[in-house]
User: What shape does this take?
Amino acid sequence: MSTLSIPKRRSYRPNFILILFAVIVIAAGIVCIYFAVHGNLSSISQNSLAVYGNRSGSGEMTVDFLDVGQGSAALLCFPDGKTLMVDSGPPSSKNKLLSYLNERDVDALDCLVITHQHGDHAGNVSAVLSACTVKDIIFPIAPVNLLIDPARFEGIYEDIADKGLVIHNPYKGEVILSGDGYSVTVLSDDTGDYATLNDYSIILRVVVGNVSFLMMGDAEASTEQQLLHSGLYLHSDVLLVGHHGNRNADSIPFLTAVSPSIAVISVGENTFGQPSNSVISRLSESDIDVYRTDEDGTVSIETNGVTYKVDCGIL
Assistant: This one.
């Protein structure tokens, strides 16, 4: 009697396990690669920023709001390799500023703008002139009686003259630097009659593609009102807050007109109550992200003219 051999049911379980294991391994590899790349964004940014400092004309633009203590200094590196420094910080930050320029390999500036003649903004002009070849230097026109230390600035003016430079006083609407897809325009009006030197600050609006920056120097309420009534287009993605966040700056109407996404406050330890709680509250109520050099270190913003990203504590 013959017997029937009933074939065993074919099992797919071993193959399924192998396939599942392979999928898990591949997925884990992708995750590792993702975090290896994105987890090192800060170091990538640092390397990229150093390249911009080398004036490579890479197609990206960076603005570094430097941590210089109680004062202000910023370096802008444009896609075509041009460089602009806005203010130079207080004398106490001299070594840090020079170290920064050395780290960025910056030994030439197309333009140096001193927003006004207070020591926390103009404290290292002579040091910058010694470290860098400067093509153009810009100061505002302001009454001599408002200068805190005229004799000290006589020495700075002599250093400028010794370099063969003539101080340029800009006018409202002047484009002081430009290139393919970017411009730096003066918004301040030197014909006003202001009570303080702060309100004579040179105000700059920097546009790179569709991304814009408004840099206010130490301008306060009087200048803000003048800007609001000027008819000038003020909207900017990034605002360098006026006068280190002093209580008399950054009114709600002004913030509404500028409507920034990011506000940077250049500030250090001080006895002036800067930034004031009222300014911080107004920025918060306006849903503006705030970065402070005393808390975040140097604030670096990189843009391709369409999007931008912020890195902190670079130096």
Remarks:
- Residues 1-21, 30-58 have pLDDT under 50 and may be disordered.
- The first helix runs from residue 13 to 38.
